[in-house]
Write a structure and sequence with these properties.
Elements: H1 3-22, H2 28-50, H3 55-67, H4 72-79, H5 90-101, H6 109-121, H7 133-159, H8 181-188, H9 201-210, H10 218-226, H11 229-236, H12 241-255
Helix pairs in contact: 1-2, 1-3, 2-3, 2-7, 3-6, 5-6, 6-7, 7-11, 9-11, 11-12
Bound molecules: fe (ii) ion.
């Protein structure tokens, strides 16, 4: 992607989301989401650089970071929830936004394919297997960058006692409940945990721990370690031995990938 195309798309995104944040019924949740997109774009740039991608591909990565959650804006405006199960698939919704705005017409076809597929599939439980290797690489990058920022942001909210102000951000979960047996069994078996099984804040943080088995690139593991994201999640989790043993196993998995 050429630099001027990337600048145009970044500006388009900021113009598109502004009315959702500043308009009537202004939403602090969507302001938080816009800032999430900015940080994911920054991490996409860093990860792409660390992977040695060409300058044009670094622009493409950054723009996928900006755009991946564009579907969150109409989703929350219409349904007042971030729970896909109770509203719409926000990946698909994002793809519809991009297509109906025709904003990707400015891109080369290969970049358009990356941004469309990356936006549409970034939140899929499993990825479709009909993607080209090139598209898949960007989709995996944005899934990593997304997870890194969610881990950092939710910990920060927990630490500053702000979670109660924005229950949407933790999908309206029970703040006090224990780790659910199903979630614990899934992480112990290294199965990915379905959002449908997450009942408590502890489940959500244990799910974040399980994401270390689902990162795809060394630069992602390096960022996770530098930012102490696992240690932070461990602080939120119950001190029970069985739970902290999973954190220790996850930390070992990360160390082996640095
Ligand atoms: Fe998302």
């Amino acid at each position: 992607m050429r630099a001027h195309v990337a600048i145009h798309l970044e500006q388009w995104f900021l113009d598109y989301v502004r009315p959702f944040i500043n308009g009537n019924g202004a939403s602090e949740v969507l302001e938080i989401k816009r800032d999430h997109c900015r940080r994911v774009a920054e991490d996409m740039t860093g990860i792409a650089r660390d992977l040695g991608l060409a300058e044009g591909d670094i622009h493409t990565a950054r723009i996928l970071g900006w755009l991946h959650d564009v579907g969150r804006f109409p989703q929350y405006a219409q349904y007042k929830t971030l729970r896909d199960g109770q509203s719409v698939d926000h990946g698909k919704a994002g793809l519809e936004v991009l297509d109906s705005a025709k904003v990707l017409m400015i891109c080369e076809p290969a970049d358009r394919e990356i941004i469309r597929t990356g936006t549409g599939c970034h939140n899929r439980h499993t990825l479709p297997d009909d993607m080209t290797a090139d598209v898949r690489r960007f989709v995996l990058m944005v899934r990593d960058a997304d997870k890194l920022d969610i881990m950092q942001t939710l910990y920060q909210f927990w630490k500053n006692d702000e979670i109660k102000c924005h229950p949407e951000l933790i999908l309206e979960l029970n703040l006090e409940g224990p780790v659910s047996p199903r979630v614990l069994a899934d992480i112990r078996a290294r199965r990915s945990i379905s959002y449908a099984h997450i009942k408590s804040l502890a489940d959500f943080f244990l799910t974040q721990v399980s994401w270390v088995y689902d990162l795809n690139f060394r630069p992602s593991y390096q960022r996770l370690a530098q930012r102490r994201l696992l240690e932070q999640a461990a602080e939120v989790l119950p001190q029970e031995t069985i739970v902290q043993a999973e954190v220790a196993a996850a930390a070992q998995h990360v160390r082996e990938r640095l």
